[in-house]
Amino acid sequence: MQDQPPIESVGTARRSILNRGMYNYRGVQMVDLVHASRGCRFNCYPCAVRFLGGRKFRPRPYDKVIEELAAIDNNRLFIVDNSLAQDKDWEMGLFKEMIPLKKKWCSHPIEDDDKVLDLAAQAGAWFIYQAIFDSSNHIRDRVKRYHDYGIAVEGSILLGLDYHTEDYIKRLVDFLLEIELDMAEFTVLTPFPHTRTFDDLHKEGRIFSYDWGNVLLRLG
User: What is the mean pLDDT of the chain?
Assistant: First the structure.
């Protein structure tokens, strides 16, 4: 893969070209999207963002991010970074700079650390996406800690793994209700190219269409 462009070259999105009328749906104000960084150092099983955005975490300078956030007249934002939990010092610094903006925002995971969670709450954390990959005490505690800081949780639940029987999924749904998720998002395992999922299922001969408009998986 070619070297990524300097992160300092990432400027403010050209929101002037957007149809702002689409940002209000039946009286509900939609969120504006913002990137505070590029790239991801993690390698999650179904995810292709390391290929798309680069395998190295590249945070934007604080002043560039804050300038863009401050210029948005929407008070509901989605920080769409793959994960903010990649550099704790940068993450805490960003949240400190965001506090005076008084914006409400959601994002993918942040660091499970009391100082980070406190700063995130002060900075206006509205809700956080949390992968729910099992019904363990680890997940239970993680959701509780977000709630303790007044941060809502949207569970991101991947279905379609080999051990996901009907009984397993029923137990998982009971667990989601028990831990009082605020929202839930269910996705079906798909072997996107450049993912560990693709590598495994391709080697096993379990992908029987490479037409990504009509992917079929042999899960049995």
Answer: 90
